[in-house]
Amino acid sequence: MRAIHFIAILFPFLLTAQKKQKDLADFLITGNFSIPAILSSDMYRASFDGIYEMNFSANKAFGGNLYAGLGYQNVLFQNDESLQYTYFNASIPYNTRLMGNGVFARFSHVRFFNDIGFISYALQAGYLMCQYKNVNADTSAANQPYGAQKFNAPYVQPELAINFIVDKTISFGVVLSYTTLFSKFDPKAPRFNQFEQISSESNNYVMSWLNFGFNFNALLHRKK
Fold this sequence. Notes:
single chain; mainly beta; eight-stranded antiparallel beta barrel; 3 helices; 11% helix; 58% strand
């Protein structure tokens, strides 16, 4: 539902684009680098902070500035800095991370709003393979039975970007996207369920995060 609301936000931007459009390029190599901000669930947001999300894709034009392509995605989260464990009366910070690697299909559309500026909106759908790393070997009853430290799930990611062509074959811009990973957070997997500030939070929605960052497009066989 939140992804649908996000997509709806894109349309006012599209309406500002000029009606007369020119073609961009036959092929696009697109790359995004952004910082994730966890939105759901509350338990997941209390457990981790976003470090980065990046993806790259190769896209082919199919007329009317419509593109389809394939890409690779990588995302990294670090445990919240408030999480610490006691060892011989000393508080030691956790260093648990969640890393995801995935592949996706990308469908996008471009509309120019002046000679060098264009808005692109896209939908990426793929499969993310995730793993918790540096998991502390907590054996308390709250974390048993232990959750799987590796899991896989599909995801979708609507995206909006404002781009400016700075050279004949490249553009740079800012990008906003919303990732919904169709998997519920399990606090027992990273061994966090013993923390009251985590176990007391709700966990009703799948894992999702908002991304804001920068992007580039390599414009191959650019049309005049």
